[in-house]
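lol ok so funny story. i was supposed to be doing the assay writeup but got distracted and ended up predicting the structure for this chain instead. priorities right. anyway since i did it might as well share w the group, maybe its usefull for someone
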Amino acid sequence: MNGSLPDHHNWPQPVLSYSEAVRELHATIESEWDSVKQSACQTAAGRALWNHVVNDPLAELFAGETYLKNLYDKIKKDRLNNAPEVSGVILAVRTLWFDSKLELAVESFGGGGAQVVLLGAGMDTRAYRLECLKESDVYEIDFPEVMQMKHTLLQAAIGLINEPTMIAKSLRRIAVDIRDDDWFKKLMESGFIPEKNTVWILEGIIYYLPHSQAMGVLKIIADNCRITHTVLLADFMNKQSTALSATNYHFYSDWPDQLLPSLGFSDVKLSQIGDPDADYGLLHDPHNLFNRLRGLPRSIQNHPDDGTPCRRLYLVQASGSPNGS
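and the output, tada:
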């Protein structure tokens, strides 16, 4: 998919047709949730405001007025000032990359459906919007508060929006903190079958975990390569990126394409925003931040031109199976 960028006059505005019940739910999110949980709504706002390239009719519902308006104002300012990269573009590119790689992974299993597990699912809507999942069982895992709020928002929106139709064969929401040791046990209790081909999606989640817990999650997924055909789709921050929020971001890997094979994955492919498979026609300015970084060796921590930190986000696809392919 290739996209174009509307100018600041024509950028699609959010509709914001919220009921009082939905507004009250979002007020609870803003007053009671910490910044990690709130990031689920901020991500939904990114999908909603880039809806000319990301088809997600539920994104506005899950985003809430505050995050939509804040991001919309930033986008209009960026377009007015001809900024080399527009606010939210990284969320749009990341969403499109995960969507396309998920479709290819499901197809690679050769039919018969698959399992798709979203860790830190937040306000993800893939079970409702991706045709490639119509024969797949989807499992969403996140904090109990997030899973409950997601369900409640959907119920509160009935009548305001077209009632969402689930495309996936099935969807199970599992309320558990993946920092807890029993998250995989609860996944199994919800019907997950280790012997069935599985795609694991870790989108915008792994860097929130402490190092030991992140490595534990990755090892559990890698261990499944010895049982069945397993695909991991994940984004990794490098060390410099975690400095953007020292309180929230903990785990990093400067070389995830070396880390994952050491855990048991046999095939790893790494992309950066702006690479041919992670551009989607949304990064038109050759001087944008992502192109400046892509031209530098990954070992360089600070840009030689101005000394700014080289903050990178790696999009990684890893796979493995019992026969090592």
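The chain has one domain: 90-320. DSSP finds twelve helices and seven strands in the chain.
back to the writeup now i swear
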